[in-house]
Amino acid sequence: MRNRIFEIIEKRQRPNAASTSYDILMLIAINLSIVPLMFTQNYPAFVWFEKITVSIFILDYFLRWITADIRLKKGLWSFVLYPFTPMAIIDLLSILPGLSVLSEGFKVLRFTRLTKIVRLLKLLRYSSRLDVLISVVKKEKGVLLMVLGMAIFYVFLTALIMFNVEPQVNPETGAVTFRNFFDALYWATVTLTTVGYGDLCPVTDIGRLVSMVSSLFGIAIIALPSGVITASYLEELRSRKN
C-alpha cells in the first residue's frame, strides 16, 4: 500500500493516471491558496479556500512522511530525517499559516499574509523545467558563488567610495543625499544591476564619475551568471533528451 501511495504522490518521468491527477490536484490547491493574497479584502470564499487547501497540504505532508523510507532509503532514520529536508520544510511552512483557520487553538500561529507566498515554492516539486534549472544551479554553483562574491565586494566598494565622496547635503537644493551607509549600499546595488530608479543619485562630478564606472562594470558582472546559466541550461536539456 505504501509503495502504491509513493508512486502516486512522487513525481515520475512516466506518470500514470493516478499520479497525474494527484499532481493536478496539488497544482490547483497551491494556486487557490495564493488567490487571497491578490485582494485586500477577506471574502468568505477565501476562508473556504484556506480550509480546503490547508487540509490538502496536511494530507500531502502526512503521505510523504509515511513513505519517507522509500524516498530516502535510510530505513527507520528516514522518518526522522524527512521533516528536515528542504521540500518538507517548505511543505510545513505552507501549512502553518492556515492552521488558525482550521482551529481556534492555533491563533498563536497566525502568520502574516506574506508568509503564504512560500507556498509557491511547492511548485518546484511539479515543474520539470524548474527541476532542470535547479540541476544547473547545483552544477555551476562554484562559478555562481564566485560571481556573487565579486558582486557583493563590488557593491560594498562602490558604496564606500560614494558615501565618502558625496556631500551629506546637496549644496544646490539643500536635500539630503545619502543619509547613512545603507543608502549608499542601496544606490550601489541599483546601479550595479543597471536598474537606476533615480531616487538616489550623485550630485558632484566625482560622484557621477564613480556612478558611470560602476554602471559599466555592473553590466559585465550581471552578464556573467546569465551566460553561465544559459549555456549550462541548454546543455542539461540536450543531455536529458538523449
What does this structure look like?
- The protein is mainly α.
- The chain has 2 domains: 2-126; 141-241, Orthogonal Bundle (Helix Hairpins).
- The chain has 11 helices and no strands.
- It has helices at 2-9, 17-34, 44-66, 68-72, 77-81, 86-95, 99-102, 128-139, 141-165, 181-192, 205-241.
- It is elongated and about 75 Å long.
- Residues 105-111 have low confidence and may be disordered.
Which helices and strands, and how do they pair?
Layout: H1 2-9, H2 17-34, H3 44-66, H4 68-72, H5 77-81, H6 86-95, H7 99-102, H8 128-139, H9 141-165, H10 181-192, H11 205-241
Helix content: 55-70%
Number of helices: 11
Termini Cα gap: 34 Å
Element order, helices and strands?
HHHHHHHHHHH
Beta-strand percentage range: under 5%
C-alpha geometry: elongated
Largest sheet: none
Which ranges are low-confidence, i.e. pLDDT below 50, for 5 or more consecutive residues?
A: 105-111
Number of strands: 0
Structural class: mainly alpha
Q: Count structural domains.
A: 2
Assembly context of the chains: single chain
Rg over C-alpha atoms, rounded to the nearest angstrom: 24 Å
Average per-residue pLDDT, rounded, comes to 80
